[in-house]
Design goal:
disordered C terminus; nine-stranded mixed sheet; 20 strands; Rossmann fold; 14 helices; five-stranded parallel sheet; about 425 residues
């Protein structure tokens, strides 16, 4: 689908100059090599890029640099023990694995990679890495002969075949005085390489319009009808689409969230405002992802002055709001359209009915209520399309958004006869 770029408006928020690592949860693993001293500078640079860093150290790493140093630099407690009583009460290694947007092991010694290749979980770092579904990157650091050894090369190739990323090593002088491959990449090189993991490019050259947050329907100048939507899922989807290379416009109801990096944002209040903003710009978009929790009804009449509580009961007459999603899919040149369904019961039945009724390409359904869905840090989605479905298991909303965007890209390219490979874990 083609069209002009998203037009600007007076209330449009300008492009953010934030970088790809801003807001990311980075779990840094430090193993027992002399290059461990570089982890201090690596943490500093990651935090300067806006990432939140937590550190896991092996016993060997603690012989080269102290946990206290890395705790002071990261601003978070350093994790060292697999069977930490306080951590294990909440399955500490699992909690860290779920927290991470990416794991970077720097330095990664030959011994650590050998144990990881064998699937051993006899220390905290190995256990976390094996339990993590987010991208894992290894920054090897060792003597040149150790690096060239066939056993090390076999282990590295096996780990890469399992989907792990390798950053380096570099050529150069080593601590032992020898020269050759085996030096750990410098911190700035590792930061750049890590950032590239979040830039998939699967939607490069395409335009995506995302709606997010609640709408507010005025009763009088100080009261309104709304819902519990925080906007977090919609903002995460917008960010994930931007990371995937798309040009993204975010139309948002009233929320207290920062605009995602490289995303254009329009703020609206009511359902009618949101529909007007969407329809004014939908002609230039290829994909429409309607995450917003739009109010179904609004007061038929809005009081000009604040209503006084004189009566024991007040009757409000409500009228239907416009159906933004159905309006978009009814357009002659409708974009690839993805809806959301928040349900308290019979999730699949209601979601499938909505998908068919509104002629959606896909619908992402989630349960809400009792602390699930709205205003929660985590979510889970059951995604449906004509002839198929996929469960995206409960995880942080940013990870979930990346998985959803990867799945949307797969279905979008499939519809347009462009095939891409998708693995939800690769986008975690």
């Amino acid at each position: 689908m083609t069209g002009c770029r998203f037009p600007r408006a007076v209330h449009l928020v300008s492009l953010s100059d934030m970088n790809t690592l801003s807001g990311k949860h980075i779990l840094l693993g430090v193993t027992g090599g002399i290059a461990a001293y570089k982890s201090a500078e690596l943490i500093r640079q990651l935090r300067a890029e806006g990432a939140t860093v937590r550190v896991v150290m092996t016993a060997g790493a603690q012989q080269f640099i102290t946990p206290l140093t890395l705790q002071a630099l990261s601003g978070n407690p350093v994790h060292t023990d697999l069977l930490d009583r306080s951590a294990e009460a909440a399955m500490g290694h699992i909690a860290l694995a779920r927290w991470a947007d990416a794991v970077l092991v720097a330095p990664a010694t030959a011994d650590f990679m050998a144990r990881l290749e064998q699937g051993r979980a006899d220390d905290l770092l190995c256990a976390v890495t094996l339990a993590c579904e987010a991208p894992v990157a290894l920054a090897p650091a060792m003597n040149r002969a150790m690096w060239d050894n066939p056993a090390t090369q076999k282990n590295v190739q096996a780990l890469q075949a399992r989907g792990m990323h390798r950053f380096g090593p570099a050529l150069g002088e080593q601590a032992c005085g020898e020269v050759g491959p085996g030096r750990m990449l410098e911190p700035d090189e590792l930061v750049t390489a890590l950032a590239s993991l979040f830039e998939t490019g699967i939607l490069s050259g395409y335009r995506v319009l995302v709606t997010a947050g609640p709408t507010r329907e005025a009763i009088d100048p100080v009261r309104y009808i709304s819902n519990h939507s925080s906007g977090r899922m919609g903002f995460a989807v917008a960010r994930a689409a931007s990371e995937a290379g798309a040009e993204v416009l975010l139309v948002s109801g009233p929320v207290s969230l920062e605009t995602p990096p490289h995303v254009l944002r329009i703020n609206v209040v009511s359902a009618q405002d949101m529909q007007d903003a969407v329809l004014a710009r939908i002609g230039g978009c290829d994909i429409f992802i309607a995450v917003a929790a739009v109010a179904d009804y609004r007061p038929e009449a809005v009081a000009a002055q604040k209503l006084k509580k004189d009566a024991q009961q007040v009757t409000l007459t409500l009228t239907r709001n416009p159906d933004i999603l159905a309006t978009v899919t009814a357009l002659a040149n409708a974009p690839f359209s993805v809806g959301f369904a928040a349900e308290t019961e019979q999730l699949e039945m209601h979601a499938q009915a909505k998908r068919v009724a509104k002629s959606l390409d896909m619908i992402a359904a989630n349960r809400v209520g009792d602390g699930v869905g709205f205003d929660a840090e985590e979510n889970a989605l059951q995604v449906f399309w004509d002839g198929g479905s996929q469960l995206l298991a409960q995880t942080g909303k940013m990870k979930l958004a990346r998985q959803l965007v990867a799945l949307v890209a797969q279905r979008f390219h499939g519809k347009h006869k462009k095939v891409i490979r998708f693995n939800a874990k690769d986008s975690a």
